[in-house]
Amino acid sequence: MNIATIIKTCPLFAGVTEEDLEFLSQVCKCRSHEKGEVLFSEGEKALGFYVVGSGKVKIYKLSPEGKERILHIVQPGMTFAEAAIFGNGLYPAYAEPLQRSDLLFFPKREFLQLLHDHSQIAINMIGGLSRFLRQFATQVEELTFKDVPARLAGYLLDLAGDEGMRVELPISKSQLASNLGTVSETLSRTLRKLSDDALIQVQGKVIDILDRDRMEDLASSTKEF
């Protein structure tokens, strides 16, 4: 795992100098984790944050009944738990690799000292936390004002990019259902309905978008209250 390359591709550290890059490389620790290994639990004292070098990590909460609700799927080059090193210093959710993953771990105390000494890293950190808040606000808005078909359409369009017409789901359908705030049965019915309406075609984890304009209209629609 090339630490410098991973740090350079991480949006949180965009624009740092070569000197700052060297300091960041010295502070972090390389860790490999297996699928299903719990990295931290909700309410635990935050000891630091992570950057995904390879693999995928799910961030999730558990209901009192033990039902899992996926909040984010963290891809290579992205960070997670950085907000937890501030404030009350507790992890707000659970984190678990979806496959064997190589991670960079930045210990809290050493990283906060680095922020104190290097202003550009601190400025980038503020930007990263702002992106996290916007992402969280968008997620709350979608759960409140959009139904499952609209959320699914938006997810598929985001995955496909500006011009894409074919996507491969990076997670299982049960995990996708949790990520969209629903259950597997509802997701299956929604996929079948979109297929029947000739908006998509589903072949296992591969989904072809057949009518992008109608999918965009669906993604922008809101619930009727």
Write a structural description:
GO terms for molecular function: DNA binding; DNA-binding transcription factor activity. This is Transcriptional regulator, Crp/Fnr family. Keywords: DNA-binding, Transcription, Transcription regulation. The chain is an alpha+beta fold and 225 residues long. The protein folds into two domains: 131 residues, Jelly Rolls; 74 residues, Arc Repressor Mutant, subunit A. The protein contains eight helices and ten strands. The strands form three sheets. A four-stranded antiparallel β-sheet has the order 1-7-2-5. Strands 4-3-6 form a three-stranded antiparallel β-sheet. Strands 8-10-9 form a three-stranded antiparallel β-sheet. Helix 1 crosses helix 2. The longest helix has 27 residues. The model has no long low-confidence stretch (mean pLDDT 88).
Question: Which descriptors would you attach to this protein?
Answer:
10 strands, 4-stranded antiparallel sheet, 2 domains, Jelly Rolls, Arc Repressor Mutant, subunit A, elongated, 43% helix, alpha+beta, 8 helices, 3-stranded antiparallel sheet, 225 residues
What do the pLDDT scores average to? Answer: 88
Gyration radius from CA atoms, angstroms: 19 Å
Question: Would you give the CATH topology of the largest domain?
Answer: Jelly Rolls
**CATH superfamily caption of the largest domain:** Jelly Rolls
CATH architecture of the largest domain: Sandwich
Q: Give the spatial strand order of the biggest sheet.
A: 1-7-2-5
Number of domains: 2
* Structural class label: alpha+beta
Which ranges are low-confidence, i.e. pLDDT below 50, for 5 or more consecutive residues?
A: none
Compute the number of strand runs: 10
Largest sheet: 4 strands, antiparallel
Helix content: 40-55%
Element pattern in H and E: HHEEEEEEEHHHEHHEEH
What proportion strand?
Answer: 15-25%
What's the level 1 CATH class of the largest domain?
Answer: Mainly Beta
Which geometry do the CA atoms define?
A: elongated
Through-space gap between termini: 50 Å
So how many helices?
A: 8
